[in-house]
Amino acid sequence: MVAIIERTAGFEAVLVDLRDHVATITLNRPERRNALSWRAYEELEAAFRACSADPEVRCVVVTGADPAFCSGDDVAEIMAGPKPVSKAPLPVTYTPTPAAMAALECDRPVIAAVNGAAVGWGMELALFADIRLASEKAKFGELFVKRGLVCDVGGFYRLPAVVGPAKAAELLFTGEVIDAAEALRIGLVTEVLPHAELMARAQALAGKIAANPPLAVRHLKAGLSRFSYGDPREIGAWAIEKIRLLMQTEDHREGVASFLEKREPHFQGR
Questions:
Q1: What's the predicted TM-score (pTM) here?
Q2: Fewest CB within a 10 Å sphere: which of 42, 49, 91, 170?
Q3: Residues 6 or more apart whose Cβ sits within 8 Å of residue 31
Q4: How would DSSP label each residue in 120-138?
Q5: How does DSSP classify residue 135?
C-alpha cells in the first residue's frame, strides 16, 4: 500500500493533506486564481487517483487556495501557448480528460468547498463532486461558449441532472456567471456559508461521512452514480472530440485573443 502523502510528495500546483480519514485536495496557484496549467491537470489527476488507492481515505474535500476555487484553464498556457509534445501516435478515438475521469471515478465521496470563483473547468471540477458547499463569495460559470468551445464532461454529464436540462442549457448557451445565492436557489449547491466558516463546515461534513462504514458508503456512491447520470467515458470522449474540432476555428482564436486583450469579442461563425 502506498500512502496518499507519499504519492503526492513534491506536488506544487496541488496540495494534499490527510487527517482523520479525510483527504483535502487544494489547488495551489492563488496568484493565477488557481487556473489550471498542464502541470496542475496532471497533479490533480494523480491526487484523485491516490485518494482512490489509499485505504485510509474515506472522504475527499476539494477546494482552492484563496481567493478562488478554480478560474478554469490558464488561458495563456492551455489555449494560447504551445501544446505538450507527445511521442505517441495520435489516438484514432478520443478519450475524456484524464483529470475529469480521475475525479469522477474516485470511489470515495467528494465534497467541493467552493471558496470563490468556480468558472470554466473550475465549474466542471465542482460538478464532479458529490456535494457542493459554497462560500458567500463563490461564483459559478460555464464560460466555454465565450471561448468558442463546448464544456467538458461535467457540463454534459452532471449539470442537467443537478439543475435540470433547461437551466443547464441557459448556463451553457449564455456563459452567464451566477453568484452563490442563485447557485443555492437552482440546487447547484446545498449550502451557502460565511466565507470564514466554509472549510470548517466541509471538514465536519466529511468527518461525518468518514465515520460511517466505508464499504457501504462506496457502494452508495456507486449506486448514485450509476442510476443518476449517464456514461461519463462516452460523454467525455464526445466532448473532447468537439473541443478539439472547435479549437481549430476562428471564433475560438478570437475568444482567446479578446480575453487576453481585455476587449469584447467579435465572432464570425467560422
A1: 0.90
A2: 91
A3: none
A4: THHHHHHHHSSEEEEETT-
A5: E
